[in-house]
Amino acid sequence: MRKDWWKKSIVYQIYPRSFCDSNGDGIGDINGITSKLGYIKELGADVIWISPVYKSPMFDNGYDISDYCAINPEFGTMQDFDCLLEKAHCLGLKIVMDLVVNHSSNEHPWFLDKHDFYYFLDGKNGGPPNNWIAWFGGSAWTKDEKSGRYYLGSFSPHQPDLNWENPALRKAVFDMMRWWLDKGIDGFRLDAISFISKQDFSDGDIKKKLPNGPRIHEYLKEMRSEVLSKYDVMTVGETGGVTVEEAVQYANEDGSELDMVFQFEQQDLDGGETFKWNDRKINLVELKKVFVKWQNKLYGRAWNSLYWCNHDQPRIVSRIGNDGEFREKSAKMLAACLHFMQGTPYIYQGEELGMTNCPFADIDEYRDLESINAYNTIVLDEKSISKEDMLRFMGLKSRDNSRTPMHWNDDINAGFTTGKPWIKVNPNYREINAKDQVSREDSVFMFYRKLIQLRKSLEIITRGNFELLLPEDPDLFVYTRSGVGGKLLVACNFSREERAFILPQSFYGARILISNEEINMAEELVLGAFGLAVLTIS
Ligand code: NOJ
Questions:
Q1: Annotated active-site positions, please?
Q2: What is the pLDDT at residue 446?
Q3: pTM for the whole thing?
């Protein structure tokens, strides 16, 4: 039987550029990560997902790879990587690499001499082959002056899409994956993997055209049989645009494709016609609908990731919690709300401290390609949103909010670097930092630690049934888990007002497993602002 240790794991995601700088150049690096393994161990996570550290011209901070088997010098050397892997393994921590094979960098040698590894198409009516707009703005097609043809870069011209239709490309990718696995890494997070099968090049919205192409499952099955089946590793697919029905195939319990999906339905709830550039808030009733669907439809059939944050999302306390008066309390409530569901939880660096969005003053403080391109197009070219509004929207939604340096302590630059940081440090690091959090019993860090310990010790969290209560309540997110030795009730108040509800009779006499405030147990459960209580009964 295939092992499924990753169902009981907790993944900690590191964005290396912003985690810890060991050599004072202002950019986080591999030796910096190695120096903090003890911190991750103390938190209790057991798998580390490292965003790309491969050789790259860094147009998209490493999600544009120019050599899959080399480390970018600003992150260190392959020797540093080997040392990280060895030390992590000694501590019982697994390392999952971020694999970007929907596209490479346009500086990859393949792009220079293997055009059949990419999509080079003839233009139409003197222009590109179709009207697709790239994820990060502009046409998805760039003219190659030499051949007169156009190549596809569905994210940006610096990130040409790899042609998975070509068996030689697939072989090259699988060889490279084996090379890493033979080194002893413990799995892959597969970037934009739902986009790799492309056959339909007709006009339309690229966000609808790319996901779930006709051969996607064939490719993933081939990857499983050619590579993954030979190693005891985990794979998580970044599966944008994948519905819950499709996810059953991507992450099927039969183990024929990936081990779990990492999907975006909950993240898209505050999007809209201007994509993320607005000030819409996530509606709790809608959010619950999304969670209940994924919890129930995958149950016993496929496996999901649980996450609020990553390097592409703003900080969760700022997004749906409270980053002022109730910051710590809401951070704990949000953590518990997620961590008691079924799936593998992901913690993004700094989330365990309750880190917040960053007050960027102007466009010159941003570093993210997506944000800067959007600003240039929307504010400068199209003039469809005013500068003031766009900066406000970026303050709420830009990816840079989560990419500011990790707060280690209250020393200069939050202890992240002794040099000049590549991106602004959030000025609130003097109050919010790991040194303080680790030393305080009631901190967000300690709360995450308890959640992890509970998941490790209570089988019901991994395997129990999920049932949502009060689906239409605009403030309360309440659910039960049951079926594996007892029952849990998780009650979260997403509002600033006190809220109460009558406990189901089956929870009379229950005791508190964990909470973020004093709870008086009675038939009516009263939760203060952003209050949380998890009840247990056997
Ligand atoms: C998804 C990654 O998470 C994001 O950071 C990146 O920009 C795109 N894929 C393109 O690789």
A1: 191, 238
A2: 98
A3: 0.98
